[in-house]
Design brief:
- This protein is an alpha+beta fold.
- The chain has two domains: 100 residues, Serine Threonine Protein Phosphatase 5, Tetratricopeptide repeat, CATH 1.25.40.10; 103 residues, Lipocalin, CATH 2.40.128.300.
- Helix content is 40%, strand content 24%.
- It contains eight helices and eight strands.
- Strands 1-2-3-4-5-6-7-8 form an eight-stranded antiparallel barrel.
- Strand 4 and strand 5 form a beta hairpin.
- Helix 3 packs antiparallel against helix 4.
- It is elongated and about 65 Å long.
- The N and C termini lie far apart (55 Å).
Length: 234
């Protein structure tokens, strides 16, 4: 019986680690990819993670890291590919990273793309309450005010109906911090800055604003501002 169990273990290891795998080279490539990631060179990082996968096809971290870099570049196809691989993988680590993706900030930018959400294991945008979307991935959103004072916007939605943000003036080049309260009414966001400055936003298609096909935004009803999940320097 012991010999049968030993053979089964060996067969499992053979499937997990092909004879031509080079785990040392894979770890080296993965480490180099993490260095490129820290420098925000996501394209180079993705290529290095792909090299790590080529060296050791069963390297779970490299598969997850490749999906993360794809998310940071709004490239959904590799996310779908890698999460399908991870779901089929038997390694316990695969299940852990699949769970991690639902809160990992690297996937924040694709949080309103239904194809990416399906790959990650999140429900479609239309089936998710607006407050849950706003609070997801740390609650960070950013975008642009395309009006007369064109500039960047960054806001963090917090539990309990509070928010903090900052506006960047395209005219002065300065950032201006603010705090607010927020509530939702269906698919409408009502943001109150200070005592009486009320701004209303609706969840809508971004159109050409983000340059990402299929992206959703929260767009100001009586203004030219919009935000989508992400931080200004993501």
């Amino acid at each position: 019986m012991r010999n049968v169990m030993l053979i089964a273990v060996m067969l499992g290891l053979a499937r997990a680690a092909p004879v031509d795998a080079d785990p040392a080279a894979a770890k080296k490539a993965n480490a180099a990819g993490m260095q490129a990631y820290k420098k925000k060179d996501y394209e180079a990082a993705q290529q290095l993670f792909e090299k790590a996968i080529a060296e050791a096809p069963g390297f779970v971290k490299a598969h997850y890291n490749r999906a993360s870099m794809a998310a940071l570049q709004f490239d959904v196809a590799p996310i779908v590919e890698e999460f399908a691989w991870l779901r089929a993988a038997s390694a316990p680590e695969a299940a852990r990273v699949l769970a991690k993706a639902k809160t990992d900030a690297d996937f924040r930018g694709v949080a309103l793309l239904d194809t990416a959400r399906a790959a990650i294991g999140l429900p479609p945008v239309d089936d998710t309450p607006l407050d849950a979307l706003l609070l997801g991935y740390g609650g960070w959103w950013s975008g642009v005010d395309e009006g007369m004072m064109e500039g960047w916007i960054e806001v963090q939605f917090l539990a309990g109906g509070k928010a903090k943000g900052r506006d960047h003036s395209g005219e002065s080049g300065s950032w201006y911090a603010w705090s607010a309260t927020w509530k939702v009414d269906g698919r409408t966001l009502i943001l109150t800055k200070g005592k009486d400055r009320v701004e209303t936003y609706k969840l809508d298609a971004c159109g050409d604003s983000t340059g990402v096909e299929g992206m959703r935004c929260v767009r100001q009803v009586d203004g030219a501002a919009w935000v989508s999940p992400g931080r200004h320097h993501d």
